[in-house]
Amino acid sequence: MSRTAPASERQSLAAVTPTIALSPLDGRYRAAVAPLVDHLSEAALNRERVHVEVEWVIHLTGQQVVPGAPTLGDAERRYLRDVVATFDASTVAELAETERITVHDVKAVEYLLKKRLADAPDTLEGTVLPQVTELVHFACTSEDINNLSYALMVKGAVEQVWLPAARALVEDLVAMAREHATVPMMARTHGQPATPTTLGKEIAVLAWRLRRQLDRIARTEYLGKINGATGTYGAHLAAVPDADWVGVSRTFVEHLGLTWNPLTTQIESHDWQAELYADVARFNRVLHNLATDVWTYISLGYFAQVRGQGTVGSSTMPHKVNPIRFENAEANLEISNALLDTLGATLVTSRLQRDLTDSTTQRNIGPAFGHSLLAIDNVRRGLAGLDADPAAMERDLDANWEVLGEAVQSAMRAAGIAGVPGMDEPYERLKELTRGRRITGEDLREFVAGLGLPDDVTARLQAMTPGSYTGAAAELVAFLDG
């Protein structure tokens, strides 16, 4: 009798080499999110820590802050910055080995840089770098290094990876809006046929909303501080009381391309992070709205998924091409927002002058942006596989002549205000004609003919069709250009 092998008899996948990813972002979806590794991975965090420590040494020596510290030459500054430029897999392994001893990640970075300074004479003859060893991490708490590193990481991820991808998506939508600006489409409010619009105008609405959120995100301030264990410059002033440590702190943070935060506890307050993540989450929610709307348009037949015919749409139904890109985008946006909301809620609170809740929390910034970036990729690929079907939209419009009831009763109102007799209760009269039943074009034209409207108004209304009743929709798309 056959039996299923117990789990204890299976090969352990955790022992497989190379290692198997636990997160789908590092496995199945690696290609779509790989650019974020340079910014939001653990290795990227350590590289930025080395970068901050290096720049701190260069800044202190360049400003002659600590009496007796030597001045570094161009070759020595280049040597220090090369430690960052050559940060690679072997550096990652070296740091991991050191951290196994220190059981402290920032201390491991400090020791790595001190070792590079001690080794400098092997490369630079007559160098003074070994003499500045104790300027590494001078007067710093770990959070002086961490907050600046995270600010640089997030800034790089947003400005170099996430924003370009999001802007490319918006430009795809802008192009679609322009292409379909004049294509009439039945609108649906509350899921019911409503005043017609154009496909391009509805896409333009979503492009406008997304672009507005990107403009907010592009204006993000990335804050940083370097002011000691409780934000008082206590160690700084104890060591060198005559230095302008507040000024040194400000110029250093600004040198890194960040905005200086003058008032903090041991940690930089992370408020800017919460603000950014709220904006990114809002972008995600608008994009989620786009995904559900496009999914619905596909189900109505307004879009045909005719490209990429080599793909399998359904495992059993060959006629189907499922809108999986938009469904996957929905799911990834929801996961991203769950993380972004948690980050924003958690990071703004720290007990008294410091607790460690932000440490683990910030290590999930990468997955939060990763799922958003994956969703952006899904939507772009989904949009690229669509062809609009104006004929399907026209059939829908032609089946709903009752939507012109709004136009007729509005014209009656205007005529009544102008003094035309017999225009009483226009809404009620159109409700009686149209509510709960379908009418034809002939029904509507006959009704209009008997209203006693001025001849020009009658002619205009009788010439109107659901497909022509789109107002200024086509012209509104032009607002995307300015």
From TrEMBL:
InterPro entries in alphabetical order: Fumarase/histidase_N, Fumarate_lyase_CS, Fumarate_lyase_fam, Fumarate_lyase_N, L-Aspartase-like, Pur_lyase, PurB_bact, PurB_C
EC number: 4.3.2.2
A molecular function GO annotation: N6-(1,2-dicarboxyethyl)AMP AMP-lyase (fumarate-forming) activity
Fumarate lyase N-terminal domain sequence ranges: 27-329
Keyword Lyase listed: yes
Biochemical pathway: Purine metabolism; AMP biosynthesis via de novo pathway; AMP from IMP: step 2/2; Purine metabolism; IMP biosynthesis via de novo pathway; 5-amino-1-(5-phospho-D-ribosyl)imidazole-4-carboxamide from 5-amino-1-(5-phospho-D-ribosyl)imidazole-4-carboxylate: step 2/2
GO term, biological process aspect, one: 'de novo' IMP biosynthetic process
Domain Adenylosuccinate lyase PurB C-terminal per the UniProt entry, residue ranges: 350-470
Uppermost EC category: lyase
Lyase in keyword set: yes
Reaction(s) catalysed (UniProt annotation): (2S)-2-[5-amino-1-(5-phospho-beta-D-ribosyl)imidazole-4-carboxamido]succinate = 5-amino-1-(5-phospho-beta-D-ribosyl)imidazole-4-carboxamide + fumarate; N(6)-(1,2-dicarboxyethyl)-AMP = fumarate + AMP
Protein keywords: Lyase, Purine biosynthesis
Role summary: Catalyzes two reactions in de novo purine nucleotide biosynthesis. Catalyzes the breakdown of 5-aminoimidazole- (N-succinylocarboxamide) ribotide (SAICAR or 2-[5-amino-1-(5-phospho-beta-D-ribosyl)imidazole-4-carboxamido]succinate) to 5-aminoimidazole-4-carboxamide ribotide (AICAR or 5-amino-1-(5-phospho-beta-D-ribosyl)imidazole-4-carboxamide) and fumarate, and of adenylosuccinate (ADS or N(6)-(1,2-dicarboxyethyl)-AMP) to adenosine monophosphate (AMP) and fumarate.
Family, similarity comment: Belongs to the lyase 1 family. Adenylosuccinate lyase subfamily.
Annotated protein name in UniProt: Adenylosuccinate lyase
